[in-house]
Amino acid sequence: MTTHDNSTTLTKLADTFGTPLYVYQQSALTDAYRAYTDAFAALNPLVCYAVKANGNLSILKHFAALGSGFDIVSGGELARVLAAGGDAGKTIFSGVGKSEAEIEFALNAGVLCFNVESLPELDRIQAVAVRLGKKAPVSLRINPDVDAKTHPYISTGLKANKFGIAYTDALAAYRHAAALSHLNIIGIDCHIGSQLTDLSPLVEACERILLLVDQLAAEGIMLKHIDLGGGVGIVYDNEEVPDLAAYADAVAKLLDGRELKLMLEPGRSLVGNAGVLLTRVEFIKQGEEKNFVIVDAAMNDLMRPALYDAHHRIETVGGGEGEAFTADVVGPICETGDFLGQNRRLACQAGDLLVVHSAGAYSSSMASNYNARNRAAEVLINGSDVRLIRQRETIEQQLANEQACLASQPQPLADN
Ligand SMILES: *Cc1c(COP(=O)(O)O)cnc(C)c1O
User: Fold this and answer.
1) Which residues have C-beta atoms less than 6 Å from ligand 1?
2) In this structure, are 250 and 286 located in the same domain?
3) Where, in this chain's numbering, is pyridoxal 5'-phosphate bound (predicted)?
4) What CATH number does residue 158 fall under?
5) Same domain for 234 and 380?
């Protein structure tokens, strides 16, 4: 979304719905989804959108309508998928710490697969399946031990990470699973990290996982699918990002002649560049060493700069008047880490509208109420139509869970 084409629209949206405001473009969601299904068409993959990137119900509903499956990491995300009309039968349950209640919920809902990350998790899923009298479909998440060459906080495929089963333990883990009565072993998966800008680790991971598929077949453990996770990066600034067609070609060569269904779990690359955050300039503050553009969005709305030192392009809607100057774009929160961008050149003044780009993924889904701020409203635009897809939170909503307790009396802790 470039401000020059859209400044009138963005200004109207901010005037109508207020700021801070997340704005998503439906055609960009569709295009990003189709980029995967087109590039990988020859392999007919199941694309499972990673809900944690952006779990807004209207966004999930849109992906469900396109035929997408879902990758979830909590019972809450499963509830979101179901509330949006998504298909549990196309939903994969990932994550290192699934609770018994979450496993039960997912088994009863009929999820496609549990992506299992440890032996104790296999045992827990077995126990719940026995209790419910069901068979649980499982895939083991194997850590291929390749360097994804991304930010340490979002790199997950190295030995030192908490994610997945160690490559060298993989065969033993499958044998363990095969000995459990109520598990149905159907696949294998990996996910080596996020915002990958290089194709080679993805291809190398696929190669290493396929070696295991062959070793398992030799032992009589036949898998139906291989899931390569998510992780393809997007352009925030001027990064080179992997070409999906090249990725698909490489995977097709590796899968050639095998009866393995391909699954993918992209998150960021389906939504990241379909969204922007609109924020209004409150004040310009000239510091002794730095200038600050103080805006009405903050780290509670968009945490990525504080958490990952992430870069989001920021522009003044309409270009701004007067001389450009260098400043940090900061929110009102009482934290030095509360910035949306540092050392940016902008022409703007109080009252101007700024657009923060590439804010569709890991942005609204990471929002919090820090400093008792209400979470932002979200809108989805489709051509010239606009729809509110999340109402701006109210202070009454924030206070409700605590107000209900204000008048309650302390009670002795009950014995169980
Ligand atoms: C976060 C995550 C994804 C999505 O990653 P992106 O980098 O957003 O594509 C996919 N699979 C798993 C298991 C994840 O944890």
Assistant:
1) 50, 52-53, 71, 73, 94, 191, 194, 229-231, 265-269
2) no
3) 231, 265-268, 362
4) 3.20.20.10
5) no
pTM over 0.90: yes
* Residue 304, annotated as binding a ligand: yes
252 is in which domain, residue-wise?
A: 95-264
Which of 240, 264, 288 terminates a domain? The answer is 264
The answer to whether residues 173 and 102 belong to one domain is: yes
Mean pLDDT of 390-410: 95
State how far the Cα of 20 lies from the Cα of 359, in Å rounded to an integer.
12
DSSP states along 332-352: SSSSTT-EEEEEEEE---TT-
Ligand 1: centre distance to CA 195 (Å)? 9
* Residues sharing a CB contact under 8 Å with residue 232, sequence separation 6 or more, in sequence order: 196, 202, 241, 242, 244, 247, 266, 268, 269
Query: Tens digits of per-residue pLDDT, 248-275?
Result: 999 999 999 999 999 999 999 999 999 9
**Domain-terminating residue out of 224, 246, 264:** 264
The residues that are catalytic are: 334
How many A from CA of 28 to the centre of ligand 1? 19
